[in-house]
Amino acid sequence: MRVIAGTKRGRTLIAPKGNETRPTLDRVKEALFSRIGPYFSGGVGLDLFAGSGALGIEGISRGLEKVIFVDTQTSNVIRDNLARLDCAAQADVFAMDYRRALNRLQRERVKIDVVFLDPPYALWHRESLLDQLSAASILNEQATVVAEMGRDKETPVSQGYEMLREALYSETKLCVYRYCATAGVPLEDVPDSLPER
């Protein structure tokens, strides 16, 4: 595995041992970032189910100011990769279940601009991950959520998310969403004016 573009371009990453993780293929990663960037001017990312941390590290390399990495099993690998690429100062690593991580981020009032959502494919059939993200109230308005799943998975839909793109790559389906708190809400339920930021 390697970083494809940005300040860390060409640097190699360590992959977790065993079959518990499924690294995102380089061509899928390149397609993903070409759809949401390909570069960023700051912002905070969340790499949920981070595995090696490759997606979040690619985001840092391409300009994200900070990324929060969440994984129950691979936090040491993520920390090693961050140290190897000299970007540990731009990262927080949570060695915990994603639900606990979302609760913690909510308590700490963290706001996220980009989410990389690449869980074990089977989890999509058991959990409403988009709903859990919005319920945690951690997404900035217009945040981008990139979701990776098996190609046979019905595309997730959830109130508050606008589907921007959907693409298939071999056995992988890639979905890009924009978060908007009022998307899909009946017009009579939308306030006349939004609070100033």
Summarize the structure.
It comes from Ferroacidibacillus organovorans. This protein is an alpha/beta fold and 197 residues long.
Write the layout of secondary structure elements.
Blueprint: H1 26-36, E1 44-48, H2 54-61, E2 66-70, H3 75-84, E3 91-94, H4 98-107, E4 112-117, H5 129-135, E5 139-150, E6 161-169, E7 172-179
Parallel strand pairs: 1-2, 1-4, 2-3, 4-5
Antiparallel strand pairs: 5-7, 6-7
Superfamily (CATH H level) name: Vaccinia Virus protein VP39
Low-confidence stretches: 189-197
Strand content: 15-25%
Describe the sheet with the most strands.
Answer: 7 strands, mixed
Give helix and strand order, one letter per element, not per position.
Answer: HEHEHEHEHEEE
Number of strands: 7
Cα gyration radius (Å):
16 Å
What class, by secondary structure content? Answer: alpha/beta
Tally of helical segments? 5
